[in-house]
Here is the input.
Amino acid sequence: MTERTDSQIAMLARHPGAAPAIIDGEATVSYGELLAASRRLAGGLARLDLGPGDRLALWLPNVPAWLILCLACARLGVVVVSVNTRFRAVEVADIVARSGAKALVLWPDFKDIDFIAILREIEPNALSRVETLVLYDDNDGQAGDAAMARHRLAGLAGGDRRLLSYAELDRDATPFDGDAGRQADCAIFTTSGTTRTPKLVVHTQHSVVDQAQIVADACGFRADDAVSLASLPFCGVFGYSLAMATLAAGRPMVSMRFFDPAEAGRLIQRHRITHIYGSDDLFHLILRATPGERPFPSLRLCGFAAFNAALDSIVDQGDGRGVSFVGVYGSSEAQALITCQRPDGPAEQRRQGGGYPTAEDTYVRVRDPDSGELLPPGEAGELEINCASLFDRYDGDPAATRAAKHDDGYFRTGDLGFIEADGRVVFLSRMGDVLRLGGFLTNPAEIEAHLEDHPSVAECKVAAVSTDDGNRAVAFIIPTDGRALDEGALRDHCLEGIAKYKVPIRFLAIEAFPMAESANGLKLQRGKLSDLAQRHINP
Here is the structure.
């Protein structure tokens, strides 16, 4: 097992400089080029007065610049704030404001989405701490129409706020060859919780690097022929963890800027991909888009999360076409592949979330949520984990951090599961009401709060339904003053403010929500809402 002493920079510096690191379309970035670019970009960021503890928000797809900027920040001690390209004004404003980001990097028109228009929808106060906007695009990192972009951003880039292109950040800077070290904060991811806004999960370099090395050792990333496919976005912990494990192993990854199932199938075949993470939805779409009895003989680790109950046959689908899908487990707080099922295990085990811990010093226990007692193997309760990859804290929320961690270091996952006698972990479900939508863990309160801002909505509750296209939200609404609901107007309201995958597929009027008496008062029966939603969608 690799000794866990590296920082991100030291981890990469161990590999031959000429070895390919990132394959982006027809271009390849070597490990030497990755490190050299990170030195230049670190110099450019330092020139913007970014230093230890400052935050840089990345609102970019899977391009090499995403990882180069991560490494540049690791040299300086700057913390990367991950922002999903599918997020819209409400979500971006919340994350950028609460993280205190001093700089924001974005691709103004990625996938023909008008990101500048989204920025202009944000209340100025939410961007008050952003001192620099950096514009990236595919023309050698330069803004394609810099003059137009600068004109449209004039209101945002006035006063003391700087506006420059990625190319300007990269050139004419004195390269910075430092290393902030293992103890420095390095990344912030968002996670859903019990409040209306997601928590900001802070990871240090040592939690990221240690887990990357653990997964590289345990899951075959160090094999001479290993190649990974980054089909999940780097802004999410599973996409980020796959990238870090690949870099820890010194092997190449093929990056996808956005997911297209047919293209994913072609990339797997062309580059003989061996490692990929995804959801059951993602793998179902790839198999459906790719002809052939056994189309992917190179695949060895296909770790999936079960997000769609309608696809409970995904393991059998894979077995029928020569692909062994395995359930995995992870979270924003613990990172990906804390546990992993064995690819040669029986199908009934591989279809379960969880698996065997990927490190000897990963410890999992189960606690009865009512009595507080620890449970023996086979009995279900809340999973608690202690491992090298755990997050440091929730940013700006010490109370939530204390509530999430026991004094002995175990993290309360909020997940329901149990442990087998041989140490295999079985994940069953979230213990709360968090929804899985579009492959992302989503707090229904975010959607509900946004809809309740609409004048026709007095109260709103959201449930998830399973469809052929994945889990989707359905909104149940008590209208204001008995008004009739205009589903089109409500859908437009959602599309303007939240990510498309969170937008409900139906908006249904209801007189009262199903509630149940409990020791703590009335509790929403979200399961009954889900059953009602399912009957409306699939009568």
Observations:
- The CA atoms of residues 222 and 249 lie 5 Å apart.
- The chain has a mean pLDDT of 91.
